[in-house]
Design goal:
The structure is a single chain. This protein is mainly α. Helix 1 packs antiparallel against helix 2, helix 1 packs parallel to helix 3 and helix 2 runs antiparallel to helix 5. The radius of gyration is 17 Å and the shape is globular. The protein contains six helices and no strands.
Amino acid sequence: MRHIPNILSSIRLAMVGVFAFLFAKTHYLACLATFTVAFLTDLLDGYLARRNNWVSDVGKVLDPLADKLMVLTALACFYLRDWLPLWLLVVVLAKELIMIVGGVILYKKEIVVYADWFGKSAAGLFNLGVALILARLFLPWLGEAGVVVLCAAAALAIVALFHYAKRQIFALREKNAGKA
């Protein structure tokens, strides 16, 4: 039972390919359904892992990897259809690359970075923005709301990046001070 969150994350990881395939075939309603199911399984696996203390090292990597790949895949697909400006995709990719490099450096120093409300809020806005962009195909009155929400998500993600960096610099200083 304790592996259910990791199984859900693995399924979500596989759904990234399903999303890209469906998008390439212009099955946008199926894309929206796939994205929504992926989002709901993300909520479920997080809930189960915390509630039942089923948190694992594999899950700490697999869960955010599945989330980030799904959103980045969606953004790349949107850019390829000219639904999203290139600068927005580049900003999000750069931010994620910085987070990955920083995470690896901190991991080597035995510091684990946990998401807080800055990162979770940005992730929520990214998910909402992706859903709105797909939904506008069926609800044209949504207009550019999805792009606006994605811009807000990117701005909040940059704030979160600086927040995490500041927090981790203090953690490194404390760890180094403890060694002295």
